[in-house]
Amino acid sequence: MDVDSTESDQLFNKLMIWMKSLHFTSLSLDPKCLRSGRAFGEVLHGIDQEFFNETWIEKVAQYDSDSNWRVKANNLRKLTRSLAEYYDEHIHRIVKGTPLLDIDEMEFAEAGSIREMLKMAVLIVGAAFLGRKQEKFVAGVTILDPDVQSGVATAIQSIMDGSEKREIQSPVVIPPEEVLPDMKPNGGVSSSSSEELGGRITLLGKEVSLKGCFWHALTKLNYSVFSMSS
Fold first, then answer.
1. Alpha-carbon distance 205 to 134, whole Å?
2. What element of type H or E holds 34?
3. How far, in Å, are 26, 116, 188 from residue 4 at the CA level?
4. Residue 59 needs a FRET pair 20 to 30 A away by CA distance; which of 125, 146, 177, 223 works?
């Protein structure tokens, strides 16, 4: 993400407003307190409690903000490692080895650099809006200030620009004649699961498309939240 200091500060503040709106952590989101990494961990836990589960969050220790930076950097490594895995497994995008995940440990854990904190915030936005729980976050962000929505859209675009799509191996296609159809009580054949899923996605897309300027901001960025799931 190539932005100057002022832009970094502004975008960081917008993403912190969004993060506070989630109510996933009671910890301060002030840069000095964020240095321990625990607050970011709690937000990730709230975003996807199956992946960032209780066992996981227990390993992200709560350190005092003035603790030795090398100790706090342990949490940062846990966060970045798990985020890389989450993007690979559930977003199907590669962030490992990219500038997106290149967070300076000392600048983050000791200096509380906004620039380095912003990198983590952007990755967390991506986990929310591109991950498997994305629908509830799209619905939630639409009630926030348009300026905040624009910041979220900018973060998502940064992920798209800075990561690579991971190719997913296509499943083996079984000829229709080899599949026994589901039968309705009246003896007819039910709609296939793929058709049902397609219908739900279509309805969801129509619903989300009505949700104000956030959707329009994404459209302007030539990006659809749900297109990345396909």
1. 12
2. helix 31-34
3. 30, 13, 63
4. 125
* 173 token code pair: 């296609």
The one-letter code for the residue type at 128 is A
pLDDT of 16 higher than 80: yes
pLDDT of the residue at 64 = 86
DSSP structure string for 145-179: -HHHHHHHHHHHHHHHHHSEEPPPPPPPPPPGGGS
Side chain identity, residue 222? N
DSSP 69-117: HHHHHHHHHHHHHHHHHHIIIII-EE-TTSGGG---HHIIIII--HHHH
Give the span between the Cα atoms of 5 and 7, in whole angstroms. 5
User: Which domains, ranges and CATH numbers included, belong to the chain?
Assistant: 3-166+205-227 (1.10.418.10)
Torsion 91-93-94-96 (CA) sign: negative
- Residue 9's H or E segment, with its range, is helix 5-22
Half-sphere exposure of 11 (CA within 13 A, CB side): 27
* Cα distance between the two ends of the chain: 25
pTM of the complete model: 0.76
CA distance 191 to 195: 6
121-170: pLDDT as tens digits: 999 999 999 999 999 899 899 999 999 999 999 999 999 999 999 877 65
